[in-house]
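RECORD TYPE: protein structure
NAME: Oligosaccharide repeat unit polymerase
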Amino acid sequence: MFEILLAAAAALSILAILCALDVSQDVFHPLVFVGPMLGFLYAWMPWKLITLGGLDLYFDNDQLVFVQTLNVLGILAFVACCLGAGVRIPRRQKRRAARLSQKTVQRLLIGGSIAGGIGLLCWAITIVNVGGFVNAYSASYSGGWDDSGYIRDGSLLLLLGVLMAVTTRSAGGPRWPSYTMMAVFGLPWLSSALLMARRGPTFALAAILLMGWYINRTKRPPLVAVGLAGACLGWLVLFLVTNRQSIYLGSNFDMKTDVGDIIEKPDTGNEWIYGAGTVLSSQQRGHYFWMRRYLAQVLVRPIPSAIWPTKYEDFGVPELLHNAGTGEGFTDALSWDGAVGSAPGIVADLWVEVWWLAIPFMGLLGWIYGYVWKKSVTRGGPWSSQFVLLSALSIYMVMQTMEAVIFRTLLLSIPCWLTWRWALAQPATRRRPAVRHFAPAFRTQPLVLRSTDRV
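PREDICTED:
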Protein backbone atom coordinates (compact mmCIF):
# COMPACT_ATOMS: atom_id res chain seq x y z
CA MET A 1 0.00 0.00 0.00
CA PHE A 2 2.81 2.40 0.81
CA GLU A 3 4.37 1.84 -2.61
CA ILE A 4 1.02 2.56 -4.27
CA LEU A 5 0.80 5.86 -2.38
CA LEU A 6 4.33 6.74 -3.50
CA ALA A 7 3.29 6.09 -7.09
CA ALA A 8 0.20 8.25 -6.57
CA ALA A 9 2.33 11.15 -5.29
CA ALA A 10 4.64 10.85 -8.29
CA ALA A 11 1.71 10.64 -10.72
CA LEU A 12 0.01 13.70 -9.22
CA SER A 13 3.21 15.74 -9.47
CA ILE A 14 3.80 14.75 -13.09
CA LEU A 15 0.17 15.29 -14.12
CA ALA A 16 0.20 18.70 -12.44
CA ILE A 17 3.18 19.78 -14.53
CA LEU A 18 1.72 18.43 -17.78
CA CYS A 19 -1.72 19.97 -17.19
CA ALA A 20 -0.24 23.35 -16.30
CA LEU A 21 1.95 23.37 -19.41
CA ASP A 22 -0.80 22.15 -21.73
CA VAL A 23 -3.52 24.53 -20.59
CA SER A 24 -1.62 27.66 -19.57
CA GLN A 25 1.11 27.45 -22.25
CA ASP A 26 3.40 29.12 -19.72
CA VAL A 27 6.64 27.54 -18.53
CA PHE A 28 6.49 29.80 -15.48
CA HIS A 29 3.18 28.47 -14.19
CA PRO A 30 3.65 27.72 -10.45
CA LEU A 31 3.00 24.00 -10.87
CA VAL A 32 5.90 23.76 -13.32
CA PHE A 33 8.41 24.45 -10.54
CA VAL A 34 6.44 23.50 -7.41
CA GLY A 35 5.39 20.16 -8.91
CA PRO A 36 8.95 18.80 -9.17
CA MET A 37 9.66 19.83 -5.57
CA LEU A 38 6.56 18.01 -4.33
CA GLY A 39 7.45 14.95 -6.37
CA PHE A 40 11.02 14.98 -5.10
CA LEU A 41 10.09 15.30 -1.41
CA TYR A 42 7.01 13.06 -1.31
CA ALA A 43 7.77 10.45 -3.97
CA TRP A 44 11.40 10.19 -5.08
CA MET A 45 13.05 10.62 -1.68
CA PRO A 46 10.92 8.05 0.22
CA TRP A 47 11.17 5.66 -2.74
CA LYS A 48 14.96 5.72 -2.58
CA LEU A 49 14.82 5.28 1.19
CA ILE A 50 12.49 2.30 1.13
CA THR A 51 14.39 0.50 -1.62
CA LEU A 52 17.48 0.62 0.61
CA GLY A 53 15.56 -0.43 3.72
CA GLY A 54 16.12 2.91 5.42
CA LEU A 55 12.54 3.52 6.54
CA ASP A 56 12.25 0.22 8.40
CA LEU A 57 14.62 1.61 11.02
CA TYR A 58 12.11 4.24 12.09
CA PHE A 59 8.53 3.32 11.10
CA ASP A 60 6.20 0.35 10.75
CA ASN A 61 3.97 -0.14 7.71
CA ASP A 62 0.85 1.41 9.26
CA GLN A 63 2.77 4.53 10.16
CA LEU A 64 4.17 4.81 6.64
CA VAL A 65 0.73 4.45 5.09
CA PHE A 66 -0.79 7.07 7.40
CA VAL A 67 1.93 9.65 6.70
CA GLN A 68 1.96 9.08 2.94
CA THR A 69 -1.84 9.26 2.74
CA LEU A 70 -1.64 12.68 4.34
CA ASN A 71 1.08 13.70 1.87
CA VAL A 72 -0.90 12.55 -1.17
CA LEU A 73 -4.02 14.40 -0.03
CA GLY A 74 -1.93 17.53 0.52
CA ILE A 75 -0.46 17.34 -2.99
CA LEU A 76 -3.91 16.76 -4.48
CA ALA A 77 -5.38 19.78 -2.69
CA PHE A 78 -2.52 22.05 -3.73
CA VAL A 79 -2.66 20.99 -7.39
CA ALA A 80 -6.45 21.11 -7.69
CA CYS A 81 -6.78 24.57 -6.14
CA CYS A 82 -3.82 25.97 -8.07
CA LEU A 83 -5.43 24.86 -11.33
CA GLY A 84 -8.84 26.01 -10.09
CA ALA A 85 -7.58 29.56 -9.53
CA GLY A 86 -7.59 30.01 -13.29
CA VAL A 87 -5.09 28.29 -15.52
CA ARG A 88 -6.61 29.13 -18.91
CA ILE A 89 -6.12 32.77 -19.88
CA PRO A 90 -8.21 33.99 -22.87
CA ARG A 91 -6.14 35.69 -25.53
CA ARG A 92 -8.04 38.93 -25.12
CA GLN A 93 -7.04 39.08 -21.45
CA LYS A 94 -3.35 38.52 -21.99
CA ARG A 95 -1.44 41.72 -21.57
CA ARG A 96 1.25 42.98 -23.87
CA ALA A 97 4.88 43.43 -22.95
CA ALA A 98 5.30 46.02 -20.22
CA ARG A 99 6.13 49.53 -21.41
CA LEU A 100 6.90 51.66 -18.41
CA SER A 101 7.12 55.41 -18.52
CA GLN A 102 10.41 57.11 -17.83
CA LYS A 103 9.11 58.42 -14.51
CA THR A 104 7.97 54.92 -13.47
CA VAL A 105 11.35 53.42 -14.38
CA GLN A 106 13.18 56.10 -12.42
CA ARG A 107 11.05 55.55 -9.35
CA LEU A 108 11.44 51.77 -9.53
CA LEU A 109 15.20 52.17 -9.71
CA ILE A 110 15.16 54.60 -6.79
CA GLY A 111 12.94 52.33 -4.71
CA GLY A 112 15.08 49.33 -5.58
CA SER A 113 18.23 51.25 -4.71
CA ILE A 114 16.83 52.20 -1.32
CA ALA A 115 15.73 48.64 -0.51
CA GLY A 116 18.91 47.10 -1.85
CA GLY A 117 21.03 49.72 -0.10
CA ILE A 118 19.41 48.87 3.24
CA GLY A 119 20.01 45.19 2.55
CA LEU A 120 23.64 45.85 1.62
CA LEU A 121 24.17 47.86 4.79
CA CYS A 122 22.69 45.06 6.93
CA TRP A 123 24.84 42.46 5.18
CA ALA A 124 27.97 44.61 5.64
CA ILE A 125 27.25 45.06 9.36
CA THR A 126 27.04 41.30 9.87
CA ILE A 127 30.32 40.82 8.00
CA VAL A 128 32.16 43.54 9.95
CA ASN A 129 30.91 42.10 13.25
CA VAL A 130 32.77 38.84 12.65
CA GLY A 131 36.02 40.45 11.49
CA GLY A 132 35.57 40.89 7.77
CA PHE A 133 34.76 38.89 4.66
CA VAL A 134 37.50 36.27 5.06
CA ASN A 135 36.66 35.54 8.68
CA ALA A 136 32.97 35.35 7.84
CA TYR A 137 33.44 32.58 5.30
CA SER A 138 36.53 30.77 6.61
CA ALA A 139 34.48 28.00 8.22
CA SER A 140 31.70 25.87 6.81
CA TYR A 141 28.17 27.26 7.06
CA SER A 142 29.34 30.32 8.98
CA GLY A 143 28.72 33.80 7.51
CA GLY A 144 28.12 37.10 9.28
CA TRP A 145 26.20 37.76 12.47
CA ASP A 146 24.44 40.43 14.47
CA ASP A 147 22.45 40.19 17.67
CA SER A 148 19.59 42.10 16.10
CA GLY A 149 17.19 40.04 14.03
CA TYR A 150 16.37 43.13 12.00
CA ILE A 151 19.99 43.34 10.86
CA ARG A 152 20.27 39.62 10.13
CA ASP A 153 17.03 39.47 8.16
CA GLY A 154 17.52 42.88 6.55
CA SER A 155 19.94 41.43 4.03
CA LEU A 156 16.90 39.87 2.31
CA LEU A 157 16.23 43.29 0.81
CA LEU A 158 19.20 42.68 -1.46
CA LEU A 159 16.88 40.41 -3.44
CA LEU A 160 14.34 43.19 -3.86
CA GLY A 161 17.05 45.50 -5.18
CA VAL A 162 18.05 42.87 -7.74
CA LEU A 163 14.41 42.29 -8.72
CA MET A 164 13.70 45.98 -9.32
CA ALA A 165 16.85 46.27 -11.45
CA VAL A 166 15.93 43.23 -13.54
CA THR A 167 12.34 44.44 -13.89
CA THR A 168 13.25 47.90 -15.20
CA ARG A 169 15.88 46.54 -17.58
CA SER A 170 13.50 43.95 -19.03
CA ALA A 171 10.93 46.71 -19.57
CA GLY A 172 13.42 48.80 -21.58
CA GLY A 173 14.90 50.80 -18.71
CA PRO A 174 18.43 52.26 -18.67
CA ARG A 175 21.11 49.67 -19.17
CA TRP A 176 24.05 50.61 -16.95
CA PRO A 177 22.15 51.70 -13.83
CA SER A 178 20.21 48.41 -13.94
CA TYR A 179 23.30 46.25 -14.47
CA THR A 180 25.17 48.12 -11.75
CA MET A 181 22.36 47.48 -9.27
CA MET A 182 22.29 43.79 -10.20
CA ALA A 183 26.02 43.48 -9.55
CA VAL A 184 26.16 45.56 -6.37
CA PHE A 185 23.18 43.85 -4.74
CA GLY A 186 23.51 40.42 -6.32
CA LEU A 187 27.15 39.61 -5.61
CA PRO A 188 26.94 39.89 -1.79
CA TRP A 189 23.90 37.65 -1.80
CA LEU A 190 25.56 35.19 -4.19
CA SER A 191 28.69 35.03 -2.05
CA SER A 192 26.64 34.28 1.05
CA ALA A 193 24.58 31.67 -0.78
CA LEU A 194 27.49 29.77 -2.31
CA LEU A 195 30.14 30.12 0.40
CA MET A 196 27.62 29.04 3.05
CA ALA A 197 26.24 26.31 0.75
CA ARG A 198 22.67 27.49 1.34
CA ARG A 199 20.14 25.99 -1.04
CA GLY A 200 17.30 28.44 -0.35
CA PRO A 201 19.21 31.67 -1.10
CA THR A 202 20.83 30.07 -4.17
CA PHE A 203 17.46 29.05 -5.59
CA ALA A 204 15.88 32.41 -4.72
CA LEU A 205 18.53 34.45 -6.55
CA ALA A 206 18.41 32.19 -9.62
CA ALA A 207 14.60 32.44 -9.76
CA ILE A 208 14.62 36.22 -9.45
CA LEU A 209 17.20 36.66 -12.21
CA LEU A 210 15.54 34.26 -14.66
CA MET A 211 11.87 34.88 -13.97
CA GLY A 212 12.32 38.59 -13.30
CA TRP A 213 13.70 39.01 -16.81
CA TYR A 214 10.95 37.11 -18.64
CA ILE A 215 7.92 37.74 -16.45
CA ASN A 216 7.43 41.27 -17.80
CA ARG A 217 7.59 40.08 -21.39
CA THR A 218 5.11 38.13 -23.48
CA LYS A 219 7.92 35.88 -24.68
CA ARG A 220 8.97 32.89 -22.61
CA PRO A 221 12.15 30.78 -22.82
CA PRO A 222 11.83 27.40 -24.58
CA LEU A 223 10.53 24.51 -22.51
CA VAL A 224 13.69 22.47 -23.12
CA ALA A 225 15.88 25.33 -21.90
CA VAL A 226 13.77 25.75 -18.77
CA GLY A 227 13.90 22.01 -18.12
CA LEU A 228 17.68 21.91 -18.45
CA ALA A 229 18.08 25.02 -16.29
CA GLY A 230 15.79 23.51 -13.65
CA ALA A 231 17.71 20.24 -13.65
CA CYS A 232 21.03 22.05 -13.31
CA LEU A 233 19.68 24.25 -10.52
CA GLY A 234 18.29 21.21 -8.71
CA TRP A 235 21.62 19.43 -8.97
CA LEU A 236 23.45 22.55 -7.74
CA VAL A 237 21.17 22.77 -4.70
CA LEU A 238 21.83 19.12 -3.81
CA PHE A 239 25.54 19.57 -4.53
CA LEU A 240 25.79 22.46 -2.07
CA VAL A 241 24.03 20.53 0.69
CA THR A 242 26.13 17.42 0.07
CA ASN A 243 29.43 19.32 0.20
CA ARG A 244 28.46 21.87 2.85
CA GLN A 245 31.30 20.85 5.16
CA SER A 246 33.90 21.39 2.40
CA ILE A 247 32.75 24.76 1.04
CA TYR A 248 34.48 27.69 2.73
CA LEU A 249 37.45 30.00 2.17
CA GLY A 250 40.68 28.11 2.77
CA SER A 251 39.13 24.71 2.20
CA ASN A 252 40.78 22.09 0.01
CA PHE A 253 37.40 21.85 -1.75
CA ASP A 254 37.34 18.07 -1.77
CA MET A 255 33.94 17.82 -3.45
CA LYS A 256 31.59 14.95 -4.20
CA THR A 257 29.71 15.07 -7.47
CA ASP A 258 27.46 12.20 -6.41
CA VAL A 259 24.57 13.88 -4.62
CA GLY A 260 22.72 10.66 -3.84
CA ASP A 261 23.69 10.65 -0.16
CA ILE A 262 21.44 13.57 0.62
CA ILE A 263 18.48 11.54 -0.69
CA GLU A 264 19.37 8.00 0.30
CA LYS A 265 20.96 8.48 3.71
CA PRO A 266 18.42 7.25 6.30
CA ASP A 267 19.14 9.58 9.20
CA THR A 268 16.89 11.70 11.38
CA GLY A 269 17.85 14.83 9.47
CA ASN A 270 16.38 13.55 6.22
CA GLU A 271 13.39 15.73 5.28
CA TRP A 272 10.96 12.87 4.68
CA ILE A 273 11.98 10.91 7.78
CA TYR A 274 11.93 13.99 9.98
CA GLY A 275 8.61 15.14 8.49
CA ALA A 276 7.02 11.74 9.06
CA GLY A 277 8.30 11.78 12.63
CA THR A 278 6.79 15.23 13.13
CA VAL A 279 3.37 14.03 11.94
CA LEU A 280 3.39 10.85 14.04
CA SER A 281 4.69 12.55 17.17
CA SER A 282 2.02 15.23 17.01
CA GLN A 283 -0.70 12.67 16.21
CA GLN A 284 0.20 10.33 19.04
CA ARG A 285 0.43 13.12 21.58
CA GLY A 286 -2.66 14.92 20.26
CA HIS A 287 -0.72 18.19 20.35
CA TYR A 288 -1.40 20.93 17.77
CA PHE A 289 -0.67 24.64 17.80
CA TRP A 290 -3.87 25.90 16.15
CA MET A 291 -2.23 28.87 14.39
CA ARG A 292 -0.23 30.09 17.40
CA ARG A 293 3.12 29.52 15.69
CA TYR A 294 2.04 31.36 12.55
CA LEU A 295 0.53 34.25 14.48
CA ALA A 296 3.76 34.52 16.46
CA GLN A 297 5.62 35.19 13.21
CA VAL A 298 3.41 38.21 12.53
CA LEU A 299 2.63 39.55 16.00
CA VAL A 300 5.60 38.59 18.16
CA ARG A 301 8.64 38.09 15.97
CA PRO A 302 8.90 41.77 14.90
CA ILE A 303 9.36 42.80 18.56
CA PRO A 304 13.11 42.80 19.36
CA SER A 305 14.23 40.20 21.88
CA ALA A 306 16.17 42.94 23.70
CA ILE A 307 12.82 44.52 24.55
CA TRP A 308 10.89 41.31 25.21
CA PRO A 309 13.35 38.45 25.91
CA THR A 310 10.65 35.89 26.73
CA LYS A 311 8.27 36.81 23.93
CA TYR A 312 7.72 33.29 22.59
CA GLU A 313 7.31 31.79 26.04
CA ASP A 314 4.82 34.47 27.01
CA PHE A 315 2.92 33.97 23.75
CA GLY A 316 2.62 30.27 24.51
CA VAL A 317 4.97 28.88 21.86
CA PRO A 318 8.37 28.27 23.50
CA GLU A 319 8.74 25.34 21.08
CA LEU A 320 9.54 27.79 18.29
CA LEU A 321 13.10 27.97 19.56
CA HIS A 322 13.62 24.28 18.69
CA ASN A 323 13.22 23.46 14.98
CA ALA A 324 10.35 25.95 14.70
CA GLY A 325 8.21 23.83 17.00
CA THR A 326 8.26 20.70 14.81
CA GLY A 327 10.66 18.55 16.84
CA GLU A 328 8.77 18.08 20.09
CA GLY A 329 7.92 14.71 21.63
CA PHE A 330 9.95 12.48 19.31
CA THR A 331 11.53 10.46 22.11
CA ASP A 332 8.26 9.69 23.89
CA ALA A 333 6.28 8.91 20.76
CA LEU A 334 8.89 7.30 18.50
CA SER A 335 11.86 6.44 20.74
CA TRP A 336 14.25 8.50 18.63
CA ASP A 337 15.09 12.20 18.33
CA GLY A 338 14.89 14.39 15.26
CA ALA A 339 18.11 16.08 14.21
CA VAL A 340 18.60 19.64 15.39
CA GLY A 341 18.09 22.17 12.59
CA SER A 342 15.92 19.84 10.49
CA ALA A 343 12.79 20.87 8.61
CA PRO A 344 9.74 18.64 8.00
CA GLY A 345 8.33 20.01 4.74
CA ILE A 346 5.09 21.85 4.15
CA VAL A 347 2.51 19.09 4.77
CA ALA A 348 3.98 18.02 8.11
CA ASP A 349 4.37 21.63 9.22
CA LEU A 350 0.70 22.35 8.48
CA TRP A 351 -0.32 19.12 10.25
CA VAL A 352 1.42 20.21 13.45
CA GLU A 353 -0.39 23.51 13.22
CA VAL A 354 -3.98 22.65 12.26
CA TRP A 355 -4.39 18.81 12.25
CA TRP A 356 -6.51 17.58 9.28
CA LEU A 357 -7.19 21.18 8.30
CA ALA A 358 -3.73 20.91 6.77
CA ILE A 359 -5.43 19.60 3.61
CA PRO A 360 -7.62 22.69 2.96
CA PHE A 361 -4.67 24.87 3.95
CA MET A 362 -2.62 23.19 1.23
CA GLY A 363 -5.47 24.01 -1.13
CA LEU A 364 -5.38 27.64 0.00
CA LEU A 365 -1.65 27.85 -0.72
CA GLY A 366 -2.18 26.37 -4.16
CA TRP A 367 -4.98 28.84 -4.88
CA ILE A 368 -2.77 31.77 -3.82
CA TYR A 369 0.01 30.71 -6.18
CA GLY A 370 -2.45 30.21 -9.04
CA TYR A 371 -4.25 33.50 -8.41
CA VAL A 372 -1.08 35.59 -8.23
CA TRP A 373 0.22 33.92 -11.40
CA LYS A 374 -3.02 34.76 -13.20
CA LYS A 375 -2.81 38.39 -12.08
CA SER A 376 0.81 38.60 -13.21
CA VAL A 377 -0.17 37.35 -16.67
CA THR A 378 -3.25 39.54 -17.10
CA ARG A 379 -2.28 42.72 -15.24
CA GLY A 380 1.50 42.67 -14.79
CA GLY A 381 3.22 45.47 -12.90
CA PRO A 382 3.32 44.85 -9.14
CA TRP A 383 1.57 41.50 -9.59
CA SER A 384 4.47 40.27 -11.71
CA SER A 385 6.97 41.23 -9.02
CA GLN A 386 4.87 39.58 -6.33
CA PHE A 387 4.70 36.38 -8.35
CA VAL A 388 8.47 36.35 -8.83
CA LEU A 389 8.96 36.75 -5.08
CA LEU A 390 6.52 33.92 -4.29
CA SER A 391 8.31 31.74 -6.83
CA ALA A 392 11.70 32.53 -5.32
CA LEU A 393 10.42 31.57 -1.86
CA SER A 394 8.67 28.40 -3.01
CA ILE A 395 11.63 26.22 -2.03
CA TYR A 396 11.28 27.40 1.57
CA MET A 397 7.56 26.61 1.51
CA VAL A 398 7.88 23.07 0.13
CA MET A 399 11.09 21.89 1.75
CA GLN A 400 11.06 23.71 5.10
CA THR A 401 8.23 25.32 7.10
CA MET A 402 5.72 28.12 6.90
CA GLU A 403 7.79 29.98 9.51
CA ALA A 404 10.57 30.16 6.92
CA VAL A 405 8.13 31.68 4.42
CA ILE A 406 5.94 34.05 6.41
CA PHE A 407 8.51 36.60 7.58
CA ARG A 408 10.44 36.46 4.29
CA THR A 409 7.26 37.10 2.32
CA LEU A 410 6.28 40.05 4.50
CA LEU A 411 9.78 41.53 4.46
CA LEU A 412 9.95 41.43 0.64
CA SER A 413 6.31 41.83 -0.38
CA ILE A 414 5.41 44.97 1.57
CA PRO A 415 8.35 47.12 0.30
CA CYS A 416 7.68 45.79 -3.19
CA TRP A 417 4.04 46.94 -3.09
CA LEU A 418 5.03 50.32 -1.70
CA THR A 419 7.67 50.83 -4.39
CA TRP A 420 5.26 49.98 -7.20
CA ARG A 421 2.51 52.13 -5.68
CA TRP A 422 4.83 55.12 -5.61
CA ALA A 423 6.22 54.39 -9.08
CA LEU A 424 2.77 54.22 -10.68
CA ALA A 425 1.30 57.19 -8.80
CA GLN A 426 0.20 59.99 -11.07
CA PRO A 427 1.45 63.47 -10.16
CA ALA A 428 -1.27 65.65 -8.74
CA THR A 429 -2.31 68.41 -11.17
CA ARG A 430 -3.39 71.76 -9.83
CA ARG A 431 -6.65 72.74 -11.45
CA ARG A 432 -7.48 76.34 -12.23
CA PRO A 433 -10.63 77.58 -10.52
CA ALA A 434 -13.62 77.51 -12.79
CA VAL A 435 -14.99 80.90 -13.93
CA ARG A 436 -18.65 81.23 -13.15
CA HIS A 437 -20.95 83.07 -15.56
CA PHE A 438 -24.02 84.63 -14.01
CA ALA A 439 -27.11 85.09 -16.18
CA PRO A 440 -28.82 88.48 -15.94
CA ALA A 441 -32.09 88.76 -14.08
CA PHE A 442 -33.91 89.85 -17.24
CA ARG A 443 -33.17 89.80 -20.95
CA THR A 444 -32.97 93.15 -22.68
CA GLN A 445 -34.18 93.52 -26.22
CA PRO A 446 -32.27 95.68 -28.68
CA LEU A 447 -34.01 98.89 -29.76
CA VAL A 448 -35.06 98.69 -33.40
CA LEU A 449 -36.37 101.81 -35.07
CA ARG A 450 -39.02 101.42 -37.73
CA SER A 451 -39.68 103.90 -40.45
CA THR A 452 -43.19 104.65 -39.13
CA ASP A 453 -41.94 105.71 -35.74
CA ARG A 454 -41.77 109.41 -35.02
CA VAL A 455 -39.06 110.97 -33.04
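COMMENT: Residues 2-91+266-424 form one domain.
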